[in-house]
Amino acid sequence: MPHLTSSTDGAARTEVRTGFGVPGCGHPLLAPTEWGELSRPGTPLHWVVLNVADGPGSRPDPHCLEAAGRVRNAGVRVLGHLDTAYGGRPFADLMSDAHRYRDWYRVDGFLLDRCPDERAVLPAIRRTVAALRGLRDDTHIVLGHGTHPHPGYAENADQLVTFSGPWSDYRWSQVAEWTADYPPERFCHLVHGVPRGHLDEALRIARWQGASTIWFTDRTDRGGSAVPWETMPGYWDDIVSRIGTGVSE
Q: Fewer Cβ atoms within 10 Å of its own Cβ: the N or the C terminal residue of the chain?
């Protein structure tokens, strides 16, 4: 199968516990059930992204502060959403948003969405990451490439999103060879349009490719007109049970 690495490497990687990285639910007033589920004790969550209005918004939102606080009180990292526009946003704008997230919502780190993947832009991302780490201790940085970037990016973040897209692409995806030099905790896969009947297959792909943080949903982007991450998967309880009990291992 094209998504498999060597049998020796894959066998070692399946021992890692899988958990969810939530790329961003809707506003708490529009998605109260979703935020309630994310604060439920025992849910295998690695982090949850807070995206108020394509960033932190222009003023503090008490509903977002309350929702983020419940998630953090459950022991889960809350990350602020920073759109790098593939390297097109000025450093000052990114840092301004980051300061607002820290001051208003007490975030534990950041997801740099639409992160560039070319070697030429690596110094700029390195500078941004260094500045973000200076905002607080133990800042968790996730670079949202959505594909395999130049391997140098792996030295500048806690995690890389190396796949973001539809199930039709994911089921035939291939892992970059250089990722075998890093543990599965360093990689995340975000996949939409995953049918319930293919959940086990999707989980196997993530494990063989060495990604311990995932977000699988049956929601779709409807041809680019919707954000598939804003609501819970229709099989939320099912996938939580599978990951929580290790059924798929």
A: N
